Amino acid sequence: MKFKSNQGFSLIELMVVVAIIGILSVVGVPKYQVFKARAVVAEANSNLAGIYTVQQAYFMDQDTYSTTLATVGFTTPTGSKYTYAVAAPTGGSIATGFVATASYVPSSKLASCSTVNSTPYDRRNVDHDKTLNGTGYVNGLAGC
């Protein structure tokens, strides 16, 4: 008498694997979205540091800061989630200082735990003293 060897997986084994994958996705997807949103904020901080550097170089040559980013050679990277602008500081002159702003106004939330109740959703600034700050929702991740 010969026994047939059973090959393959039982229904219980398949259900356990599907349950484990479901649990991992419930935990992993929101964490990934938060990670992705933080990367977007890091992009803005990095570009603002670049704007600060080119503005300081421009100041060394011209004894004034530039009012346009194109003049100092800064172009917004392709696919950037932020728009960048530069202006004179409040109550000051562009000859003595500047404030560069990165604004992100998404059409949807950055992460499943964040909210969309503010315009702009995330705004970061750097000035001539290299003071970096953000206003609006902290890191663009309110509720996380």
What does this entry look like structurally?
There is one protein chain. It contains one helix and four strands; from the N terminus they run αββββ. It is α+β, with helices and mostly antiparallel strands. The protein has a four-stranded antiparallel sheet, covered by helices on one side. A hairpin with a 4-residue loop joins strand 3 and strand 4. The longest helix has 52 residues, at 11-62. The protein is rod-shaped, with a radius of gyration of 25 Å. The protein starts with 10 loop residues before the first helix and ends in an 8-residue tail after the last strand.
Could you give the topology of this structure?
Blueprint: H1 11-62, E1 83-87, E2 99-104, E3 122-127, E4 132-136
Antiparallel strand pairs: 1-2, 2-3, 3-4
Cross-sheet strand order for the largest sheet: 1-2-3-4
Count of alpha and pi helical runs: 1
- State the share of residues found in helices, binned by percent: 25-40%
The helix-strand sequence is HEEEE
Strand content: 15-25%
Name the descriptors.
single chain, 144 residues, alpha+beta, four-stranded antiparallel β-sheet, 1 helix, 4 strands
